[in-house]
Amino acid sequence: MNIRKSIILRVRIAFLIIGVFAIAAIARIVVLQRGDDRKWAKIAEEIDLQFRKVPATRGNIYSDNGSLLVTSLPSYRIAIDPTVANSDVYRKGIDSLAYLLSRHFNDRSKEYYKRKINDARLEGKRYVVLNRRLVKYQEKKEMTHWPILREGRNTGGVIFEKLDRRYRPFAYMGYRTVGYVNDNNEGAGIEYSFNTYLAGKDGKALYQKMAGGKWRPLHDESEIRPIEGYDIHTTINVNLQDVTESALLHALRYHDADYGCAIVMEVETGEIKAISNLTKSGNNQDYREVFNYAVQGLADPGSTFKLASMIALLEDSNLKLTDSIETGDGEYNFYNSTMRDHKPGGYGTISVKQAFEYSSNIAISKMIYSQFGSDPQRYIDYINSFGLSQPLGFHMIGEGIPKIKNPSDKSWSGITLPWMSIGYEVEVTPLQMLAFYNAIANDGKLIRPIIVKSVTKADDVVRSYEGQAIKRKICSSKTLKEVQSLLEGVVENGTANNIKNNYYKIAGKTGTAQKIINGKYTKQYSTSFVGYFPSDNPQYSCIVVIDKPKGFSQYGSNVAAPVFKAIADNIYARDLEMHLPYIAQKEVNDGVFPVIRAGNREDLEKICDELAIPNTSITDEDWVIAQRKDNAVLWTTDEIAPEVVPNVLGMTLRDAIFLLENYGLRVAHKGTGRITAQSISPGKKLLKGSNITLTLG
Predict the structure, then answer these.
(1) Under 8 Å CB-to-CB from 683, ≥6 apart: which residues?
(2) Is 355 within 8 Å of 364 (Cβ atoms)?
(3) Does the CA dihedral 471-472-478-482 come out positive or negative?
(4) Beta-carbon neighbour count of residue 269 at 10 Å?
(5) Does the pLDDT at position 581 exceed 60?
(6) Tens of pLDDT along 129-157?
(7) Domain limits of the chain?
(8) What is the pLDDT of residue 576?
(9) Is 426 helix (H, G, I), strand (E, B) or coil?
(10) Are 496 and 561 within 8 A, CB to CB?
C-alpha cells in the first residue's frame, strides 16, 4: 500500500512539473510574439542587408495630339564608396575630382570635398553622398568622365541612384485635371484615377545599411527589375485648354470672384477638350487650381435647371410655346414664401417662349406647380429620366453625387417643388449639367463624358475608351426641337443676347443662383452659362461657372456668358470647318447686250432666241446667271449647295421669290426693278423658315 501511494505521488509530481514547464513555454511564446515585437523589430532593422523596393518609372500622360502633359524625368543622387578605388587611381584623381565637384555644385570649396572623401576613406565608410542636389541625366553622363568616377562602380566606387521626378512641360496648366499622386498613394485627377496603369510594377533590389541609417544599393544578381507604367492618352486639347484657362482667369480677376470653372466638350463624342478650375488663394489673392469644382463641386444650378423643367412640362402636357402665362408685377407667393422675377415690376403677360428666354422664375414655377403640384413625384420621375439624379460614371475618382429631393424626404415642403423648378433645393455638378445640355445638342442622346481615350504600352493599345450612351433619347423629338429653339431664343432675344454674333449661332441658358449662408439667401451669387455652338450644327458644348463675383454686374449674362463667348470665338476662329463657304460675286459686263443678270434658264433662252441674241449654256441647272463670252451670252451656275442660301442677285422679283420660297425662306421685298441686294448673303447656312429681305433697284 505504501509502495502504491509512493508511485502515485511521484507521478503526480512529474505531471505537475511537466504542467509548469508547459505553462512556462506557452507564456514565453506569447511574450516572444506579443510582448517583445518591438524589440525584435528593432533587431531586424539593424540587420545589414535588406531587400528594398525599387520604384517603377511612371507612364506618360499625353494630350489629344500627342503633346506631353506629364512625364517622368530621371534624376540621380551621386554617391561614392571611397574604399573601392586602389591607391594609385585614388591618389592621381582625388584633387581633380574635388575641384570638379566644387565647380559643378558651386556650393563648397574643393578642399571641403577632398577632406570629406579622404576622411570617409580613412574611416572605411562604404557609402558617402557627395551632394544632396540631384543631378540630371546629361550631368550624370558628364560625371562618368571625371577622375575616379570614370572607373565605374566596381573599380572607382561611384554610385548613381536613379530617382524619377514628374515633369510638366506646360507647368500648371490643367494642374488639378492632370492631378498627382503623393508618397502615401493619395492624390487627385488623372494621375490618381489611373494610378494602377501609370504606376507600373515596382522591383526589388538588395541594399546594405550604412552608418547613419543610410542604405546603398548593391545591384547583385538577385535584383528584380521594375516594370515601367503604361501611358495615358487624354482627350485634352492643349490649345483649347490654354484658351479656356485664360478666358476664365481674366473674368475671375475682373469680377474679383472666389472661384470658377469651365468645361469644353465635343458634342458627338463626349470628349472633354478643356477643363479648368481656378480658386482665389494665397497672400497675393491670385488664382490657382486647388479643387476640381467641375467634377466634384455640388451646388444649386440656378436657372440653367429650368431647361429640365421645361422639358418635363412639354412632355407631360399639351403646352404650346405660344401659350400665355401671367407673371404679374414680379412677385408671387407660394404659401408663406415670395418668389420674385429679376425685372422690376415684372413681365406681365408673356408667352411660354418668352418666359424661358427672359428666365422668369414666376412663370416657370407657376406652370410646374399647376402641372405637377398634385403629384410632385411625377416631376421627380422626369428629372430622373433625364439622367440628372445619378453620377455620370466619369473617369475621374471623386465625381459628386447629385442631390435631388423626393416628396418622401423629411425636408420636402410645400415650396420645394416651385423652388426646385428654377434650380434651388437641388445640387448637381457643372459636368453633370453640361452632359444634360450636350444631350439636347446631340439629338437627345445622353453621353457619358470621357477624358481618357486609351492606355498604351509603347505602340500597343492596352485599353481604349469611347463616350457611351447613358440614354438613347431623353425626350421626344417634338420636345427636343422646341427646347432647341428656346435655347437659341435665349441668345437671340433673351437674357444672353449680349453674346449674339453674326458669324455663328449659340444656344444656351444663363443661370444666377443666390448663395445660401446659415439657411438664409444672401446677395451673393453663383453665375453660370451652359450651351452649345454652332446651334444649327452643334460641334461643342461648354459650361462656365463663376462664384461670388463682386461689383455691379453679378448675373450669369454679364459674368459667365462672356467667358463662354470668348472660348467659342476662339474655337470658331481655329476650326475652319465651322466657317460657311464664301461665294465670290461675279461681275457682269453689259457690253452691247441687254441687261441680263440671272433667272430661269429656259425663260432666258427663249427671250434671247426671240431677240436673236447668241447664247449658249455650260450647265443643265434650271437657275443660271449671265456672263458675256465674245459676242454671245454664256449661261453658268452659282454652284451653290442645296443647304445654303442661293444667289438671286440680278434676278427678277418673280424668279427670286419662286426660288427662295422653294428653299423654305420667307421673302419680303422693297423697291422696283431687279434684285440688287439680299439680306442673307449667298452661301450662308440655310435655316428654313428664316426671313429674307430683297432690295430691288
Answers:
(1) 580, 581, 582, 583, 640, 644, 645, 647
(2) yes
(3) positive
(4) 16
(5) no
(6) 899 899 988 999 999 999 999 998 889 88
(7) 52-234, 242-578, 598-696
(8) 72
(9) strand
(10) yes
Cell numbers 449659340 label which residue? 506
> Mean pLDDT in the chain?
86
- Maximum distance among all Cα pairs of the chain, rounded to whole angstroms: 161
| Contact of 79 with 127, CB cutoff 8 Å | yes
User: What cell was used for 634?
Assistant: 454664256
Give dist(CA 516, CA 524) in Å, integer.
Answer: 8
Q: From residue 11, how far is each of 2, 5, 14, 609 by CA, in Å?
A: 14, 10, 5, 144
Q: Contact at 8 Å (CB) between 486 and 358?
A: no
> Under a CB-based contact definition with an 8 Å cutoff, are residues 635 and 615 in contact?
yes
Q: What is the pLDDT of residue 590?
A: 47
> Mapped to the 3 state alphabet, what secondary structure does 63-116 carry?
CCCCCEEEEEEEEEEEEECCCCCCHHHHHHHHHHHHHHHHHHHCCCCHHHHHHH
Q: How far apart are CA 113 and CA 116, in angstroms?
A: 5
Among the listed residues 197, 231, 404, the one whose alpha carbon sits nearest the alpha carbon of residue 305: 404
Residue 444 pLDDT > 80: yes
Query: Which run of H or of E encompasses 149?
Result: none
> Do 653 and 667 form a contact (C-beta atoms < 8 A)?
no
CA distance 70 to 171: 9
Q: Please, which residues bridge with residue 272 across strands? A: 265
Mean per-residue pLDDT for 388-410?
95
Express each pLDDT in 489-508 by its tens digit: 999 999 999 999 988 999 99
Q: Which amino acid is at 27?
A: A
Check pLDDT > 90 for residue 648.
no
* Contact call for residues 251 and 260 (beta carbons, < 8 A): yes
Q: What is the pLDDT of residue 553?
A: 78
Distances (CA, A) of 341 to 179, 333, 428, 511: 41, 12, 23, 13
Round to whole Å and give the CA distance between 506 and 487. 8
Any idea how long the chain is? 697
CATH of 598-696, one of 3.30.10.20, 3.20.20.370, 3.40.1080.10, 3.40.190.290: 3.30.10.20
Topology at the third CATH level for domain 242-578: Beta-lactamase (3.40.710)
Residue 223 in grid coordinates: 535584383
626 or 41, greater pLDDT: 626
pLDDT digits (tens, 9 = 90+) for 262-287: 999 999 999 999 999 999 986 667 89
Within 13 Å of residue 347, how many CA atoms lie on the same side as its CB? 25
pLDDT at 31 over 80: no
Q: What is the pLDDT of residue 1?
A: 52
Q: With pLDDT > 90 as the criterion, what percentage of the chain qualifies?
A: 56
Helix (H, G, I), strand (E, B) or coil at 652: strand
Environment class of 235 (CB within 10 Å of its CB; exposed 0-12, middle 13-18, buried 19+) = buried
Of the candidates 598, 601, 573, 576, the residue with the CA atom closest to the CA atom of residue 588: 598
First to last CA, the chain: 150
- CA-CA distance, 300 to 526, in Å (whole number)? 8
Q: Write the pLDDT tens digit of every residue in 86-144.
A: 999 999 999 999 999 999 999 999 999 999 999 989 988 888 889 989 998 899 999 99
For 84, the grid coordinates are 573601392
CATH class of domain segment(s) 52-234:
alpha beta
Partner residues linked to 666 by β-bridges:
691
- Locate cell 478666358: which residue? 247
Question: Grid coordinates standing for 143?
Answer: 560625371
Buried/exposed code over 195-225 (b: 16+ C-beta within 10 A; e: otherwise): bebbbbeeeebbbebbeeeebbbeeeeeeee
How far is it, in rounded angstroms, from Cα 68 to Cα 174?
12
What is the predicted pLDDT for the residue at 631? Answer: 64
pLDDT of 582 > 60? The answer is: no
Cis peptide before 534 (omega within 30 of 0): yes
Q: What pLDDT shows up at residue 584? A: 47
